[in-house]
């Protein structure tokens, strides 16, 4: 199984090239290995350039060399006809001998690919690298299982949890390296969301400042306050959607209608706390600058918790440093 895992890890790395570029589809990577153990072809799904799924991209790159080969793919090959034909049939037609996949497809519409491949006398190995592949594809999987996009709550705060001083100043709490990392994160999501108060107070552009000339994530503004007509979020750099409601059921319905898999929340504490209490946040991405204010605006509002025993616990996923800044990502127990 060790060699299986090595090839699957390559497929997972390939799949992540599609982050922010596949919605409403999942990110998927595929690697085809010849009988001599060498890589014949690779592919990943990218709807911005081609409708083909990762398996078909790899098969087209392999051509006749796919005959008798082994395919590693991060998600169970689909077994339905949508904008493209079923990947299972393409795999069968290409003469692939063995398919190794990581995650069983949770989408009932497309599931069942493994059974179809087995019925065609193709060897199927499931579950290789499942945990790693699930994490990479957590946004789409969450959307399928919970009926709403995966939401990462991004916060830049001082060591004592302040996002602004008492005079409302907030630039800059974190250093340039941290802010550059945020731009990379923005590029991997399908949408960036803020509240109306953030637009009024800060006039954010909500565009990845990474020099990329490709299409930018959807901008979403949520709330009922009147917005300045000249706000930067209304320029032509990216589409902008306004959800003029405080009803979180309405908000959830509007978000799922966008087709987005992954939304980055960059709002102030009012909207973020409401979403947190409603169980609609999945991940906290906290950038902490090496400073203390002692007073000012906290990144989370009153949760109504009065004792440590009732504190909201979060599981840490990762931590890294950018100079004196610390970036920590936590998993939030969500509904």
Please provide a brief summary of the model:
The chain has helices at 2-15, 54-62, 87-94, 113-119, 130-136, 138-146, 176-187, 196-202, 248-257, 269-277, and strands spanning 29-33, 39-44, 70-75, 98-103, 123-126, 150-157, 162-164, 191-195, 218-222, 240-243, 262-265, 283-288, 297-298, 315-322, 325-331. By secondary structure, it is of the alpha/beta class. The protein has an eight-stranded mixed beta sheet with strand order 10-9-8-11-6-12-15-14, sandwiched between helices. A five-stranded mixed beta sheet has the order 2-1-3-4-5, sandwiched between helices. A two-stranded antiparallel ribbon has the order 7-13.
Any overview of this molecule?
This protein has 335 residues and is an alpha/beta fold. The chain contains ten helices and 15 strands. Strands 10-9-8-11-6-12-15-14 form an eight-stranded mixed β-sheet, sandwiched between helices. A hairpin with a 2-residue loop joins strand 14 (315-322) and strand 15. The longest helix is centred in the first third of the chain and has 14 residues, at 2-15. The radius of gyration is 22 Å and the shape is elongated.
Largest sheet: 8 strands, mixed
Work out the radius of gyration. Answer: 22 Å
Strand content: 15-25%
Shape summary: elongated
N-C termini distance = 35 Å
From N to C, what is the helix and strand string?
HEEHEHEHEHHEEHEHEEHEHEEEE
Oligomer: single chain
Contiguous low-pLDDT stretches (5 residues minimum) are none
Mean residue pLDDT: 93
> What is the helix tally?
10
Helix content: 25-40%
Provide the spatial order of strands within the biggest beta sheet: 10-9-8-11-6-12-15-14
């Amino acid at each position: 199984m060790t060699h299986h895992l090595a090839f699957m890890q390559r497929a997972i790395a390939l799949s992540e090239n599609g982050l922010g570029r596949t919605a409403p589809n999942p990110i998927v990577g595929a690697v085809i290995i010849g009988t001599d153990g060498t890589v014949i072809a690779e592919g990943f799904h990218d709807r911005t350039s081609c409708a083909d799924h990762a398996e078909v991209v790899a098969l087209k790159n392999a051509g006749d060399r796919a005959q008798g080969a082994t395919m590693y793919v991060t998600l169970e090959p689909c077994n339905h006809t949508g904008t493209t034909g079923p990947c299972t049939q393409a795999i069968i037609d290409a003469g692939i001998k063995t398919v190794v996949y990581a995650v069983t497809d949770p989408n009932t519409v497309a599931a069942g690919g493994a059974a179809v491949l087995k019925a065609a006398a193709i060897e199927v190995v499931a579950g290789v690298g499942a945990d790693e592949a699930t994490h990479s594809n957590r946004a789409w999987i969450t959307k399928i299982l919970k009926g709403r996009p995966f939401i990462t709550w991004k916060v830049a705060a001082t060591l004592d949890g302040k996002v602004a001083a008492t005079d409302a100043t907030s630039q800059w709490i974190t250093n340039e390296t941290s802010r550059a990392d945020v731009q990379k994160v923005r590029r991997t999501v399908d949408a960036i969301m803020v509240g109306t108060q953030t637009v009024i107070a800060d006039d954010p552009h909500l565009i990845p400042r990474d020099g990329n000339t490709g299409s930018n994530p959807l901008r979403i503004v949520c709330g009922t306050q009147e917005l300045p007509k000249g706000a930067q979020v209304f320029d032509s750099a990216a589409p902008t959607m306004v959800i003029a409601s405080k009803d979180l059921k309405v908000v959830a319905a509007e978000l799922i209608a966008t087709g987005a898999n992954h939304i980055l929340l960059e709002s102030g504490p009012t909207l973020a706390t409401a979403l947190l209490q409603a169980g609609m946040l999945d991940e906290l991405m906290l950038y902490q600058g090496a400073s203390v204010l002692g007073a000012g605006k906290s990144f989370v509002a009153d949760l109504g918790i009065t004792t440590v025993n009732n504190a909201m616990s979060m599981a840490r996923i990762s931590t890294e440093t950018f100079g004196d800044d610390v970036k920590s990502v936590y998993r939030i127990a969500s509904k």
